[in-house]
Amino acid sequence: DYQVSLEKRASMANHQEGECFISLHAGGFPRVGVNAWGVYYFAPSDNRTGLSETAGDMSDAARARLNWRQIQAKYLQASKTLAETLKANLEECPAIDGVQSAEAPLLALEGIDMPAVIVEMGYLTNPSCESRLSNPNFLAETAACLRRGIDQFFSGK
């Protein structure tokens, strides 16, 4: 959804006071045959902040940006656990070939004040992937795998 800015999405999620944030993505890739599934959690990157000043030397706007970027850091372990739990459950779906779990400095997860992950569901530029993502049965099966992962995450198993 390009209609809602990343900051607005984070603000909306935080306002709803959810217990976790899961963003589903199906993107594109220059090579048609590429098809990859992954579950990503936030990794802070000092290089991306662009803020090298000490807190005392920062403007209010710079301090606010830094604080925004640090919100998700306190959920790093919980987000990692959520990602690994979802990965394990997605790997049990017969129509999904391999899922990776990794940390990444993703802007879409900045500012989220709860455990948060992005699920990359393949690439629409791959005809096979596009076909599966258009199939209601595949979507229902994938949703069931995600639901089991969410349930396991909250039950602590």
Overall mean confidence score, pLDDT: 84
- What's the main sheet like? 4 strands, mixed
Poorly predicted runs are 47-53
Identify the overall geometry.
globular
Strand order of the largest sheet: 1-4-2-3
H/E series: HEEHHHEEHH
Q: How much β-strand is present in the residues? A: 15-25%
The assigned structural class equals alpha/beta
N-to-C CA distance:
33 Å
Number of strands: 4
The radius of gyration is: 17 Å
Proportion of residues in helical segments: 40-55%
The number of helical elements comes to 6
Structure explained in plain terms:
The protein is α/β, with parallel strands linked by helices. It is 43% helix and 17% strand. It is built from six helices and four strands, in the order αββαααββαα. It has helices at residues 6-16, 46-49, 60-70, 76-90, 127-133, 136-155; strands at 21-27, 37-42, 99-104, 116-123. Strands 1-4-2-3 form a four-stranded mixed beta sheet, covered by helices on one side. α4 crosses α6. The protein is globular.
Quick overview:
The protein has 157 residues and is an alpha/beta fold. The chain has 6 helices and 4 strands.
Keywords:
157 residues, alpha/beta
List the helices and strands and how they pair.
Elements: H1 6-16, E1 21-27, E2 37-42, H2 46-49, H3 60-70, H4 76-90, E3 99-104, E4 116-123, H5 127-133, H6 136-155
Parallel strand pairs: 1-4, 2-3
Antiparallel strand pairs: 2-4
Helix pairs in contact: 4-6
